[in-house]
Amino acid sequence: MATRTICFPISGYPYCKEQPVTFTWINGSKRQNIRAVHDAVHTTDPDVSILEVSSASVQPEGEAVSSLRLLLRLDSVAQDVPISTVFEAAKVFEHGGPFADLLTCAPSKVHKDTRLRTNGKLLRYSLEGSEYPIEPHPDSFFEWLYCRALKQFPEKAAQLSRYNAFSDIAAAADSKKYYGDSSRAAAIYVGLAAAGKLPCIDSYESFIAEVYTEPKPLPKSGKSETASKKAPEVSAPAKEIPADESSQSDNANIPDGAQMEHILELPKATCLLLSLAKNAGLSANNSSELAYKGKEFFLAAYQKALKNKTLQINIHKNKITFPMEEHDSGFHAVGVLTRSPAWEYGWKFNYLAENIPGAEKPEVKAKIQKPLTALEHLERCGYKIVQQVVPEKLPPIAVQRMAWKTGEALCDPVVVDFLQFIRTHMQSDGSFSFRIPKGASKKSFTTLSEIAQTWDKMGLFASIVIYPQNIVYELAQNETVRHFLSGKWLELFVEHQVQQILNRYREEQGAEVSVCSNVVLSETASVGSTHELDVVFSINGKFFWVEAKSSSRSIDYGKYASLCEKLNVTPESLLLVNSDLSVEECEGVSYFWNYRVANCATITQELESMIAKQLESTGNAVLSTD
User: Which residue windows does the record flag with biased composition (Basic and acidic residues) (predicted)?
Assistant: First the structure.
């Protein structure tokens, strides 16, 4: 058996919660071991969205932020340097170090350097004239370097925000003294970002003050910090005593009233509290006031259950339930607490409305109908859905992952040029030579080589040879290959980006979400008139639309603005993603047309901003299906 630590980001001190998981180790198979780790986590909490952050990760975004791949800009070196290299080069031992010459060496050579193992005890770290201690926080220097690198490359950092747990198969507990844990560093960064504390990364001292200095305890907290942080091992559900629901016991490890109040004040709780308040028939002048009333309602019911000892505890399922009722509206529900290390104090909350005959007033029943899905919105606008692709009908996962990796690679302009070159000669037979632009960085060449090799591995090339100055290739004569390179990859990439954000809204805020791609509409009043929408989705009844374009030529941007009117949505709910445009060109198009425009590097940021702004402007209003 082996043990690894799963790291969960939290939006307050210490910004990361660690939980050990035990699994069966398979020699020589890192990816099988990673799968075993993740399976063990999902045994207890299937809702956890976990990312392996190592060079062995099967997830492209995880591999990209491994310590071997994540780069750091230094003042003393011309090129960016991998985190693992900086970490090793900065070590100062009893008889040698630091080894600044390693900063210009390949990572494989760095880790083989005998000086790192023959100079005695590790004393401290030294980088660019500054000294960093190993005590009292041995991991802090690596974590600070890692967070600095993520802040320098926000496009990679944005990928991490979609996950609420991180693993690093290489970070064995007995090797932490000398090797950094990327999973813990990634979790800390996401936690700092959620709390708006990223400026503390700018200096080591402020990083230590924020991440390693315990703040004053919350007022009215009835439990010690140690007790509140305890959680069962992720991999050990079998060791729990099987039991049906039992009444509350005095020693149950559950949140007290003050801790529950803190949980309800988290930003990700707002959406669920709004839903609860509306369904309970509570009224308010604005969404902030309504969310506050939802919090007070939930908290009052929980405190009442604590006082009356009416909490029902299911040890086997790691679940606590308690009754909730609003007498004026006749609303009845069951409050639910479920073990989730990604939340404060290790618990996430939800509620289940009860349909008790005669208990609900007609007007209340109408309020608790589900919000409109994206397709229901389109049907209400008078359209007939001729065709759609739901997630279950997408291409094989290997093809999807290749599309995601393609989208990430196209953050580099050299890769953009290469794909444009391929599309230009796509209908011609024979071999072609793409000349790599002069002055292209080593990083660009590496990214280009990796994506070309990925395409080749999946059969997109009949032949390909990569030289330092050019790439000679012959495209496979296959219509499916042409379709993928012409733009199918972008549709899959966009759909994936949307799905990741929706997953987070659903898991963290309990939002009602829906998504479909390649939706073909027919205007019932005009036979033969159709429209195709690349990706449509909804959050709590709010409709959004994303178009994907992989060419900058002959695009009628005006038709999308016109279609917004027909779809009964504002242009602010439309995002057009064009992989060929630079950031400046995206801003230019958006200047002339009143909707958002992004490329592969800015899609996540624009999606997040669009959704947040629209939900805020509507107060998360829920549209009834009646």
Answer: 222-232
Whole-angstrom distance, CA of residue 77 vs CA of residue 352? 57
Nearest to 291 by CA among 278, 304, 300: 278
Number of domains in the chain: 4
528 & 472 share domain: no
Residue 170 lies in a domain: yes
- Span between the terminal Cα atoms of the chain, in Å: 55
Interval 429-443: pLDDT, tens? 888 999 999 888 999
The rounded mean pLDDT for the chain is 82
Cβ atoms 307, 222 nearer than 8 A: no
Closest CA to 294 of 308, 317, 277, 311: 277
582 and 544 share one domain: yes
CATH code of the domain containing 564? 3.40.1350.10
The model's pLDDT over 516-557, given as tens digits with 9 standing for 90+, comes to 888 888 765 444 457 889 999 999 889 999 999 887 666 888
Any domain includes 401: yes
Cα gap 287→310, rounded to integer Å: 31
Same domain, 129 and 117: yes
* Beta partners for residue 611, in sequence order: none
| End-of-domain residue from the set 484, 507, 535 | 484
Q: Which residues contact 271 (CB under 8 A, 6 or more apart)?
A: 505, 509, 510, 511, 540, 620
**Of 496, 478, 497, which is closest to residue 486 (Cα–Cα)?**
478
> What angle, 0 to 180 degrees and rounded to 10, lies between the N-to-C axes of helices 204-211 and 140-152?
110
Q: How many CA atoms lie within 13 A of 245 on its CB side?
A: 9
For tokens 């099988």, the residue is 32
Gap between the Cα atoms of 401 and 59, Å rounded: 8
> 176-191: per-residue pLDDT in tens?
444 679 999 999 999 9
Q: DSSP letter for 484, please.
A: I
What digits encode the pLDDT tens for the residues 348-380? 788 887 643 333 443 433 344 578 898 888 888
Q: Are residues 420 and 378 in the same domain?
A: no
The phi and psi torsions of 543 (rounded to 5 degrees) equal -90, 140
> How far, in Å, are 60, 97, 143 from residue 81 at the CA level?
20, 18, 16
| 359 & 277 share domain | yes
State the CB neighbour count (10 A cutoff) for residue 140.
22
Q: 484, 505, 531: which is the final residue of a domain?
A: 484
Distance of alpha carbon 365 from alpha carbon 279, whole angstroms = 8
Distance of CA 490 to the CA centre of its chain: 19
What tokens appear for 63 in the block? 């591999």
For 467-595, strand residue ranges (E) read 470-475, 513-523, 530-539, 542-549, 574-578
Question: Which domain covers residue 598, as residue numbers?
Answer: 374-387+486-618
Assess whether 347 and 301 both reside in one domain: yes
DSSP result, 65-79: TSTTT-EE--SS-SS
Q: From start to end of 415-498, where are the E strands?
A: 432-435, 461-466, 470-475
Tell the residue number behind the tokens 């230009």, with chain if given.
424
- Whether 298 and 401 map to the same domain: the answer is no
- Three state DSSP letters for 120-175: CCEEEEEECCEEEECCCCCCHHHHHHHHHHHHHCHHHHHHHCCCCEEECCCCCHHH
Among 388, 363, 370, 322, smallest CA distance to 513 is for 370
